[in-house]
Amino acid sequence: MAINIGLILVIVTLAMGLILLLDKLFFARRRTGKMPVIVDISRSVFPVILIVLLIRSFLGEPFRSPSGSMMPTLLVGDFILVNKFAYGLRLPVTHTKILDTGSPERGDVAVFRYPVDDKTDFIKRIVAVPGDTVAYRNKRLYINGEAQPVTVIGRYRGVGSGALETNDLHARENLMGLEHEILIDERYPDFNPQCRTLAHGTITVPEGHYFAMGDNRDNSNDSRCWGLVPEENLVGKATFIWMNFDMEVKGSPINWGRIGNAID
């Protein structure tokens, strides 16, 4: 069961704020002895917790890449900073949008709540926006009827948790003018038997929804399998890698070369 850190922060912040308010209104003036421990702790911790809650809710949130679905762009063990301001300011817990600050664009690497289970966060690339048509045939992505150009780089060599992707086709895809790298496993058909969204042809992305895919095209549970990402499920835009830690890597588990890399 996933821990809802946002809910915990809200509860702790409200509890401490209530303790301080009640103390100020009813107890502080009549107190003659030592301040109660719970009030002392609340006075010390409340400002810090409040600042953390505000930053995490409205500005930035750390996120860990849990799988290899976005390889080679993101590796297992990448710790990512998510810009919460990019797609609108939302209240914590309820996720109600209170300020519209922008929308995902094609090519954005976005974090969103999994439409099948909104307690789980996913990270994928937005490949189609409202009004676009999407198809996927013979390992090629089609947007608005046009096959997106793919340039082969070579064979991928994975390390650590990504070693299973070694020998996948390593390529560069041009998504409507925006380039990013992808992996293709030629041993598999276009669609996993459980991924049926595009299996029968082209779909049109309706208003308020987005089509998301992993860069690791044959090892990604994405919109091809479970459908579209509703706008209200958006969490934010992945901006840069602030740490990489993979225990499967021989030697040092920290990949210092990835720290500070922007996410394209």
Question: What is the structure about, briefly put?
Answer:
This protein is α+β, with helices and mostly antiparallel strands.
Q: Which percent band covers the strand fraction?
A: 25-35%
Q: Strand order, main sheet: write it out.
A: 1-2-16-5-6-14-15
SSE sequence, one letter per element: HHEEEEEEEEEEEEEEHEE
Overall spatial form:
elongated
Helix/strand-derived category reads alpha+beta
Chain-averaged pLDDT: 91
Radius of gyration equals: 22 Å
Helix content: 10-25%
Question: How does the major sheet shape up?
Answer: 7 strands, antiparallel
Treating each run of at least 4 consecutive H or I residues as one helix, how many helices? 3
State the total count of DSSP E strands.
16
Spans of at least 5 consecutive residues whose pLDDT stays below 50 are none
Summarize the structure in words.
This protein is α+β, with helices and mostly antiparallel strands. The protein contains 3 helices and 16 strands. It has a 7-stranded antiparallel β-sheet with strand order 1-2-16-5-6-14-15. Strand 5 and strand 6 form a beta hairpin. Helix 1 packs across helix 2. The longest helix is centred in the N-terminal third of the chain and has 23 residues. It is elongated, with a radius of gyration of 22 Å. The model has no long low-confidence stretch (mean pLDDT 91).
Properties at a glance:
264 residues, four-stranded antiparallel sheet, 3 helices, alpha+beta, 16 strands
Topology:
Elements: H1 5-27, H2 37-58, E1 60-64, E2 78-83, E3 89-90, E4 97-99, E5 109-113, E6 121-128, E7 133-137, E8 140-143, E9 146-147, E10 150-155, E11 169-175, E12 178-184, E13 203-204, E14 209-213, H3 223-226, E15 229-230, E16 234-244
Antiparallel strand pairs: 1-2, 2-16, 3-4, 5-6, 5-16, 6-14, 7-8, 7-13, 8-9, 10-11, 11-12, 14-15
Helix pairs in contact: 1-2
